[in-house]
Structure of Cytidine deaminase:
Amino acid sequence: MSNHELYQTAFSLINHKKLRNFGTSGHVACALETNQGNIFTGICIDLPCSIGLCAEQSAISEMVKNNETAIKRIVAVYEDGSILPPCGRCREFIGQIDDRNMETKIVLPEMKEVLLKDLLPERWDSKWN
Ligand SMILES: [Zn+2]
C-alpha cells in the first residue's frame, strides 16, 4: 500500500464526535501497515484531565490484538486532512512495541518519510538492548 493509500484509509475514518464532559473522539485517525502487509487503524479519544489516547495507540492496540508488532509505515491524519507527526509518547510507544520499529517509516506532511530512529536519537534504553 502506498503512503497516499494509507493516508486515504486514515482520512476515511475521521468522524469527530462529542462525548460527555467536553470529551471528543475521531478528530485524528491513524492507519498503519505491518511488516506482514496488514493494515490496522484507530482513532483518538480525548477526555478531560488529559485522559485519552492518540489514534496511533488505538491502531497499535488493534495490531497487537491481531498478534503483530512490527510496523512498516504509519500515518496519522487530522480532521482538516493534514498529516500529524506522532507526539513524543507515540514515538516512544511505537519504538517500545518492537525493536524492529526503529525502522518504521513515519509519514510526515507532504508525504515526506522519516525513520522512527531518526526521531528518537540517543535511546535511553540502549543499555538493555
Ligand atoms: Zn500521540
In short: The chain has a mean pLDDT of 96. Residues 28 and 78 are 5 Å apart (CA to CA). The helical segments are 3-11, 55-65, 88-97, 116-119. The chain is about 25% helix and 30% strand.
